[in-house]
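Repro case for the chain-ordering regression, as requested:
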Amino acid sequence: MKLRSWFLLPARVWMALFFAAPLAIIGAYSFLTRGDYGGVEYPWTIESYARLADPLYLAILWRSLWIAGLSTAICVAMGFPLALFISRAGKRKNLYLQLVLLPFWTSFLVRTYAWLFILRDTGLINTILSALHIIKSPLPLLYNDGAVLLGLVYSFLPFFVLPMYATLERLDPALAEAAADLGAPPWRTLWRVVIPVSKPGIIAGAVLVFIPCLGAYLTPDLLGGGKSVMLGNLVQNQFTTARDWPFGSAASLVLMLASAILLVLLTTRRETKGLL
Amino acid sequence: MEPVLELRGLTKNYGAHRAVDGVSLTFERGGFYSLLGPSGCGKTTTLRMIGGFETPDGGEILLDGRSIAALRPWERDVSTVFQSYALFPHLTAVENVAFGLRERRAPNARERAMEALALVELAEKSARIPAQLSGGEKQRVALARSLVLQPKVLLLDEPLAALDPKLRKQMRAELKAMQRRTGITFLLVTHDQEEAMSLSDKLAVMNQGRIEQFASPEETWLRPATRFAAGFLGAVNWFGATGVRPEVTYADREQPSSNEAGNGARRAVVESTLFLGNRLHVHVRCESGESAVAEVARGREFADGESVWLWWNSADEMRFE
Amino acid sequence: MKKRALGIYAALALVFLHLPLAVLVVFSFNQGRFTVWEGLSLHWYSAALSDPQLAEGLLNSVIIAIVASVLATVIGTMAAYGMWKRSARVLEGGMLLSLVTPEIVTGVSLLALFQWAFRFLHLHLGMYTVIIAHVAFSIAYVMIVVSARLRGLDRSLEEAAMDLGAGPWRAFFRVTLPGILPAVIAAALLALVVSFDDYVITSLVAGVDSETLPMVIYAMARRGVSPIVNAVSALILVLFGALIVLAERLREQ
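-- result from build under test --
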């Protein structure tokens, strides 16, 4: 019906103008040359992409991958038991779910700053440790990969718990009972039945965490200082301080591509359809 | 030889609601038993307590004389066939059947599983996953999965409820044959009285957490212990505290002799007639006010509004206080 | 036995999730500047509330959030409704992609767009560019929330209305919209929160005179220790918490 088309029009226009077109523009920019005063100019070249293969930048790419990967692994390891607990909590399911999600729905900036407050040289941990005379000088807890990892896990743990909980909740309780009936004690039931059956949920949750971790900017920026540079920081830097838009665009495209591939894999595999 | 399973005063409460109220039953080895009752009567709860999925609030469960109430489900030598079959979706049919054997680290688990599948005539579908099996096939895999462990008692929770009527009748015969062949004690929970009567050696009629009667199907049909049991096992024409089954209630235009008519025939008006193949169900309204159904052989005909005589044999009466 | 262990773990995990925020809030009441407790005080709050930069940032954020939220809600709700009966796979895919696209990429790409456009339009970055950006990334959130609600709606209600003589527009306004209103409002609140909290994209496309609250906070956090940030954070936590709880209540209706 024509009415439907009218209703879709504003969204289509807005997304085309302010999502698709910008991406197309930086896509084009990634193949251009850096202008003298910032911006871009001709000729077309693949120099930016070639530069990404430089060991310096490969190191950044690699760091982004392993930090995102490790954060995801930790979120899965921490989040699965938590989701399991909530799915078995009976009447208080919703309460626990809200408790997990509440910090998530508050300001991302604030949540990241909280760790800044806790980990810095004059922060809570160092203050407590030196008050207890366990250390003499403050531990450098901040401005390293570890701090970034901590910040990312903290920020995105609920991203995993929510879909994982949704999957576990839908699991037929008779399956666990059948396993027990057939002789499996609880941890065997978990290993042989619950985990394999909820695999799609685990994968979906992992991808939902991995993608934002890969493209993280604020967390490595605040908690990593200049010491733990990830792809997001590289992009931001190229578009502001370094004023090398083609290079920044190339890095953005690489980031975009990785995220898009994962998304496509997630939504086309029949087991993990239904993000919502 | 002691009974294979004994329930003594089994009780379960959910808050203020008493779901199972002092149930005591004795099951002999090798028999086919049923727990029959309407939804909410406590039969499934009782079954789940035997299986170990609910904890009794009172009473005892003795398997071969030993109390098992404190044992967890994986420690009990009973096995349950779930209403939804609960087949593991990520495993093939044969791996499903082999599951319990693998838990026990039994040798030749796969071979034994294949044998069990052959027993339920599904050997050629052993590599299928549950999503690729029909309802009846899933039911048979679930059965094989439990039977292969040779439990002391096999608990079946409305196993045929999800099947369509024709398949259900077919599966009933197979279930009975399976029980006879394996010699394992079967305890079936159902709300279908035809199912319970056709399969069981003895059936327990349950109502609101209590056992109303525990006897053979014939005994329960002919001599129900309570009004409820009478009404649940089949249709009843009630005349005050006396009940008669339609199957043995007669209707005719001519008045019967006093020999036949027992307590006396009464006049009634035909309200409708239902054709059921070999017989007719004639719905009447008696002069005395009650409505009743008389089962009549095919070939007779009654017009709506016609006046008839209704009677039965006093031997067929069921009297309750 | 296992249940107990799981419960203890869950408690620890929940503590992990909430402790940093609790610490922030507690120390916002600290007399002292650092993490040594020097007594209860509200002076950081009064400092925060009287800081002119923070005040301006707050004002900007509020204006931007409200405008962006209204726009995004309207556009997103219309899109959700349009997609309800007829699938629009490209649009839907695009929206999902926008959710998954790293914020930094969205930000720089919009910056590139604006700079390119400004060559012809002779304009500058300002509040309106921030609003445009916020609407762009909020539409998808609104669409998801409203779509979820629409899926639970009985389609035959609209058909019944039309059968009784209402045209398609009236059917939407009189029958469907009232049915999804709680979800629409919840989506608006969500868009509000998302817009209010955004730092990355905003920092890239904001003009010099359109600093938002997150931008001010970020600058303060970067500069060094300041419990003013704690105080502001605590206030934000309370505000967002309230908005989200409200949104959830509406969604459940």
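Ordering looks correct now. The radius of gyration of chain A is 23 Å.
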